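Retro notes
What went well: the complex prediction finally ran end to end.
Inputs used:
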Amino acid sequence: MTGFDRTDGPRPPLLIRLAVLLIAAVCLPSTALLAGDIENDVCAGCHEDVAAGFTMTAHGVYFTDRPALVDYGCESCHGSGLAHVEDPNPGNIINPANTDQFGSSMLCMTCHDDGAMDDWDFSAHNGADVNCASCHSVHATYDTRQALKKATPDLCYDCHTDVKAQTMMPSHHPIAEGKMSCNDCHNPHGGSAKLTQDFTGRELCFTCHADKEGPYVYEHAPVNEDCGLCHTPHGSVANNLLVQNEPTLCLNCHAMHFHATVESNDGPFIVPQNQSRNSVSTADGWKKGFLTRCTSCHSMIHGSDMPSQSISTGGNALTR
Amino acid sequence: MKRLLSVIALALLIVAGPSLLSAQDGELTQEYSIWIGSHYTTFSDYTKKVGEYNVGLDEYMPEFSVNYLGIGTDNLFRLDGHFYDKYNIDGIVDVTIADRFSFGVQYSSLVHRLGQDKLEYMSAREYFEDTDTYGGKILTHELLDPDADYDLHRQEILSELSVLLSRKNNIRMTAAHRTIMTDGHAQSLSNTHCFSCHATSRSVEVQNRTHELQAGIQADLTEELTVGYQFDYRSFDPQSPAAEAYFDQAKHPVNGGSGAEFSSRQVYDDTSVVINQVPKNEKIGNKIRVKGKLGDKTRFATSVGYNRVENKYTEIYSGAWTGAANISTVLSPTTRLVIKATGVRIKGTDDYYIDLPIFRDGRPGPAGSRPSFDYTRLSSLDRTDGRGSAELTHKLNPRMTLSVLAGYERIKRYNYPDEDYVTGRLIGQGKLRYRKSTNFSGWMKYRFEKTSDPFVSGKGLFEARGYEELSRDLRNSPAPFTFYYEREALRYQAITTAPTDEHEIELRGVFNPNPKVNVNLGLRYNYSKNGDLDSLDVKQTTMVPSLGINLMPNAQWVLSAGYTMHYDKSRGPITVALFDG
């Protein structure tokens, strides 16, 4: 069972197809598609550019450590080249880049079956029919990590264009500045990302923002629920990656202070018992004060161990 | 000292690294480049938060980079370094020996400009026709460091090691360590509530350290079964001293009198106390993974773990048992089924008691005017979270694939906002993919989520405090001394703007007319609303059309151009002013 899909050009004769399938079925469990029908030099006769740089690729280096594999070379991944040599039609040889999730993924996984790929079978990319060759250039020289076609985030942006737009918004993680990579939070092969715990979005965020985890005496319930209730990770027009600006975001859940509805006076004033504190008010002063930024006073919005000042709030106002 | 040792170790690695390369028959290939330059930045007319990761200096700065790649017979050594300015430095050193050994160290630094909130909007006084009249509630602000330019310098060092101990059973050991150092100054705000509302801004030193260690081992027990163990440790330590602030002496906001009365309504006043203290915490996790094959057609991966995080200042903790199981099975050469399930049980510190002063303790007045606000805090963390999905993918023909997904999520919160509050979410998704060789592929997707009882903010303005009943009916008989904090039950209702219905449509096409040209076209449309709310008309619409073009004339060049528009419209009417004082 290989399920390799070849849709380019005419199909090879039935016997050759069966032969390829048989060889693949026998060899897949241990060494991919080892065939041993055609010498590498024969392939190099036409694919000179690929052959010339192969020792500089990650696969080339890997094969060098295994003399048994060197002899198979190209056929390790492309299967028997017999039919292709007889008729150079591209349809006569397996092209991993031209197969779907029933094909190329399983081919590569026969060797790339270490811990990093544990979850590939169940990953969103595999489910979306993204194959290995969609992101990796197997024949490319070892110049970027993991033989990627392009470096991240540009590689990811090719498909995730909506994310690209968000990362250009005024508030964003420093991805465009080259200080973060998509892989810092996402694992394109499925499972958890680098150095992170599984399961919840909170855990992932806390790997860098550990100061927000607490646990706190005075909690803010959304922090314990999901960071995404208030923040959008890829970018936002609101400061601090908030999904909406303050106070609108806060007012989605909380009633505003009554002070905001009070009319105030115009002109300068002096605090009665502290002459150094003088200021200028406007008729909308209370509205500005209480409807600009809630976190100016509720500064410990992610939680606190210290009680706030008024007894009647139960010390729970997150102002200290 | 630590920094010096790190620099010495890195220098030794750089010098010794290339000599580690071994080559047979002179097949050692080396590439290197050195680049020296300069750049000039100016930000005379910018808003600092827009350029929040720019260093923001008006001057020329030297810049250079070094790149080296050596490839031996079965080994690699790579060094990349880039100095942009003293706040922006990146470096990577990699040593790889086939699949037996790899070790790498990465360093990255950046500056995060925070800007300063000048608090000008916090300036108001209650209205009196005669503005010279003494008194009236006052809102003021005070900048103790008005000229401070707040920024943080973040440095991260990540080291990763992988060693194949035995090829026979594929025994591999991995270890990683990460340090995050955040230094600088930030704006710290405090506010004192009596006798005037007074916000104070001060500069505080930031010196945070996060250390994270991960170690694991994995082995093949049989050809079909692999087991692994992973240990995680993380500590967060704010090393700078916590700031302190003086809180005004409590007094009547208008006439400045009645100090004892107003003081008896505060937890603290006329004193300096620690403010905005972020706790030191520590997290330890253990996880066991088992993966393998069941016959020729089924693969599975499961894990069970437990992690515990503790606040080292208060000894509050939370512990979480986690479990996951994923199964992928090939039902036929053209059909596969993927089933996923995860479960988390989080338990916080039991019944933390909040002990507050008696309201108006020692003051005269009728019974009921000196209530206790003590309560037992039950954590909103306590919950069981279960999620499961099944996705069936069928290849209709060599060019078309159809997948259908159904999922269900259930979160049971034991204490928030009320006892045993359950959110359920039903998920459905259909996706049709078309692939015509490598020249064209495209897909269309529809997804919906139907949520019952989404997350709500418990009891509106204030969180639950264990004070169940109001002492008086405000409309008829306000209680002396306690009326101002007592409000109708309406104000303690739970409220949400989270959607109950969400629909998403996504279309995408990828064209590769030849190996040198790649064109991406996409559109995502999302509509969500809350259908359970009578009073709030909550809706959100997102639309993202996009176009991307990549030209790859040769292996050295990729020219990319793209246009993406993000349209987002939210409608969540805010609450009215219910807090009448």
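What we learned: Residues 462-468, 576-581 of chain B have pLDDT under 50 and may be disordered.
What to try next: split runs per interface for comparison.
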